[in-house]
Automatic annotation (TrEMBL):
It is a multi-pass membrane protein. Keywords: Cell membrane, Membrane, Transmembrane, Transmembrane helix. It is found in: Cell membrane. Residues 15-140, 149-286 form the EamA domain. This is DMT family transporter. It comes from Stutzerimonas chloritidismutans (Pseudomonas chloritidismutans).
Length: 315
């Protein structure tokens, strides 16, 4: 009995450690993506990143994985919009702002669900929304508010992520399919869409970058921010509670701001930190006490965005 209890504690600590590592990785992804964009344009970068992800996950589309193709195509189009907004947003604003603003998808999701399925959010979620909006106001300048295009694109990406959550629930209800298979289809749609858009530009896409820094950043995002993160979520949700997972993963924006400061030399003033922490508190409040619902059809722990989880849903 003592051995079983000790093993359970070790499994819990291992799960927590893996999730904390994922939160740090996702926090670093904003700075890493910003660095990759120094060497190659947004459309080309996304085509390479998600093309590699699709190639690695292609074996998942055998057998039961084929069920993911039909819902994965429209969901992939939404995901394409998310990453176009998010990646251009990262390029045009600071990595720390991007990390905090994208976390608003957790607060937006219940309201999108309200609009789509008429499930009214709790009063606490309205309070969390007000707190997050006040945080955005402080983060982007307060009385001298200067919401730039990059910040606006990050807010659009957060809203689209919320749409993706609700649409995923609708399209995958009562269906059993491997989470990685759905991610494979979505990744293929994003890669194909970015490649097509890039080729339609008058100047086309430039030759593949030769910089080792670009390829290191891209492989890091594919290997760690997507594949390892999916594995860690699936493993951890089998060993700990969804609330505990959500609390650990909710620290991602904080790590994003810290890493952006160390790596890129970005600095948030006192007002910016207060605004960012208000957004983080609103997110954690939504995760812990908001009314959420797990989708029925996808394996527990699935990351429907292909990069980061929508925390109201899975982690």
């Amino acid at each position: 009995m003592q051995n079983l209890a000790g093993m359970a504690r070790r499994n819990l600590w291992l799960a927590d450690a893996m999730l904390l590592a994922v939160a740090i990785i996702w926090g670093s992804s904003y700075a890493v993506a910003k660095q990759a964009l120094w060497f190659y344009p947004v459309l080309g970068f996304l085509a390479i990143r998600f093309g590699l992800t699709f190639a690695l996950l292609l074996p998942q589309l055998r057998g039961a994985g084929r069920r993911a193709i039909r819902p994965g195509l429209p969901l992939g189009l939404v995901m394409l919009g998310i990453f176009l907004c998010e990646t251009w947003g990262v390029m045009l604003t600071s990595a720390s702002n991007a990390a905090f603003l994208i976390s608003l998808c957790v607060v937006f999701t219940p309201f999108v669900e309200w609009a789509m399925v008429r499930q009214r959010p709790s009063k606490l979620l309205f309070a969390a929304c007000a707190l997050s909006l006040a945080g955005v106001w402080l983060l982007t300048g307060g009385a001298q508010m200067a919401l730039n295009l990059g910040d606006g694109l990050m807010l659009a990406a957060a809203l689209l992520r919320a749409v993706l959550v609700c649409l995923t629930r609708r399209l995958t209800a009562d269906q059993q399919m491997p989470a990685l298979a759905l991610t494979a289809v979505q990744s293929g749609v994003v890669a194909s869409g970015c490649l097509l858009l890039g080729l339609l530009l008058p100047e086309g896409l430039p030759a593949l970058p030769q910089s080792p820094a670009f390829w290191a950043a891209t492989l890091y995002l594919v290997g760690f921010a997507t594949l390892f993160a999916l594995y860690a979520q699936n493993l951890a949700l089998g060993r700990t509670s969804a609330t505990r997972v959500s609390l650990l993963m909710g620290s991602e924006p904080l790590f994003g701001a810290l890493i952006a400061g160390v790596w890129l030399g970005e600095r948030l003033g006192v007002q910016g930190w207060i605004g960012g922490l208000m957004i983080l508190l609103a997110t954690l409040g939504t995760l812990c006490f908001g009314r959420t619902q797990r989708p029925a059809g996808i394996e527990r722990g699935a990351n429907h965005s292909g990069c980061r989880p929508v925390l109201t849903e899975t982690p």
